[in-house]
Amino acid sequence: MTLISSRALQNLTRAIEGERFMKITTPEFKENAVEALSNETLQKALGTVEKGFIGKRQAAADALPEFEALRDSAKAIKDHTLEHLDLYLEAYSEKVEEAGGHVHWAQTAEDARQIVLDICRSVNAKTVTKGKSMISEEIGINAHLEEAGLIPVETDLGEYIIQLRNEAPSHIIAPAVHVLKEQVEEDFRAEHTHLDEDRNLEEPESLLNEARTVLRQKFMDADVGITGANFLVAETGTSIIVTNEGNGDLTQTLPKVHIVLASIEKIAPTLEDVSQILRVLARSATGQDMSVYTTFSTGSRREGDVDGPEDYHVVLLDNGRTNMLGTEFQDMLRCIRCGACMNHCPVYHAVGGHAYGWVYPGPMGAVLTPSLQGVEQGGNLPNASTFCGRCESVCPMRIPLPKMMRHWREREFEKGLNPATQRFGLKTWAWFAKRPKLYNAGARVAMKAMAMMGGNKGKMASLPLAGGWTKYRDLPAPEGSTFQAQYAARKKALH
Amino acid sequence: MQGREAILGKIRTQVGAGKDATARRAAVANRLANAPKGVIPDRGQIPVRERLALFQNRAEAVQTTVATVSSYDDVPEAVSDYLRQRNLPKQLRMGQDARLDGADWSKTPALERRLGPSDGDDLVGLSHATAGVAETGTLVLTSSSDNPTTVNFLPENHIVVIGASQVAGDYETALDVVRQMNGKGRMPRTVNMVTGPSRSGDIEQKILLGAHGPRSLHMIVVDDLGDA
What we know:
A: six-stranded parallel β-sheet, four-stranded mixed β-sheet, 53% helix, B: alpha/beta, six-stranded parallel β-sheet
């Protein structure tokens, strides 16, 4: 009789489920959003996003008089870097090799997965600990490693929780922000069956302590540690991670091999440039002046060192980013993944991160997803915006997110990807808009008709062709005269 | 190599086309060589005594505790006091830093010092910082056998000694110290900028100390400023 351990069975299930992770559900954004809006647990959890992040960011920004000037400085640094990215990447990789590290270039997610697996196999790795990395989500490395029989262990508390839940992160810096503490307790009880059943796990403190104890052993056992990178410094060949827990540091210090997963736009020229961007990163993300651990790694363990990895590898991922360079989407590559745009987004507050259907949610995801996965897959997301502009106003790198979403809407229209009724409506409007006399006459008639329909209350409970709107609220009926008529009258009165 | 050439070639086409290749190279070489500074917050650009006060104040704001002594020979007793206050065993894990090793440990005979990297069984680690940054109360530690990186992360409690004269006003100045310590462009394997004890807000946004790194961070400042 063959006995299959529960862990092995679980891994197998995960490997199969992993396929689902990599599958993009962005085309079903509307369905996802409807589901999210009616999910009470999710709605309760999402309440903390708006409450938690916005005030803290504002306070941190207000406390530093140079904050706005630093945003300009950070933007200029990244613009300069992107314009010279080929040269900085060359300089960076030369420095890494000089310090005894290895640089691998991956054009696609598939290339990156293969490189990581090859490195793991070369040292007969069994357990792989992981620091938080969005690139690792983007390339779907966990499922790939599991299929090959390795055990990847997420060590960031939020990432660990969602790994147990078999979910994807719903926020780029707070991956488990959609989970309530009662759900975490349930997950821990199901996974940590070796612990006392009667233990108290009511408070976040006890949950944190339990995760700390369980994961400490995993850190010790790991053969390879994988982290992401917030920056790659061209001047010194250094990769930098910015964290609060210290899990990334244990991940990269204890195993024999440290693998860094980074996309090509993470380059910053010098330590001075990194210092500029660091000052806006944590303040924009969590409202801290500085995250607890900002760790610089350069090459492998040195002669005389008594700890640190013996091998250091950097996997540089393109995966569609070079297509954005030199286009109207280049500005997006300034993104430092602070999460401020989603923290301030009314759409994100309402539906959470999973509805976006791929790795990157919120406004930055609405631009990145069509950029990296194609407008056919991601074209829905730029429509999920009221263009309120809060994202752009808080983006530390001053990325014009609404403008880029508009570009994607245009591309979607050009490709004929939006619904026929919408296209018909826009075309009809355009036909009239080009004929001002007809347009004004039509507007006057429509206004009078709508005013009559509004009756005494001045509100319409239903309107032909606008059922989607009036299903949930009344449409105020127009009062007075049209804008054009008022404008003409005022102009006349002024002269 | 195939991936490298494909990626670099694509970038060259997308952003380099139609531009003067020599000028592009010069711009990059110039920035790497001269590392121009950007906006430096005024906050840390103050006289040295005030800077030290700001450093302590910022550190305490992120739950670092601070003690000040007047010489290295007072460090052992300051360590011992801290262990007693926290009810910790008289055992320390530390590297071979000469500044710490040279302190007068005969004053605290009961204190057991274990030298070398941490294996995860230590409750208290002791390190010496390479620099400090006043603007955010940040400690800068660099890896070597003098101050192994494991000592910064595995013990539950971390004590860091720093000379008052090592405290810079801003990150740029502190990182330049790191950059020059092995010759320009040659960094130690690991540099840790540490701002407070480990924490996480991953469960319902409630910030809790002691996620995976030390639950407490204690700083001992050796006041070597004289009359400054």
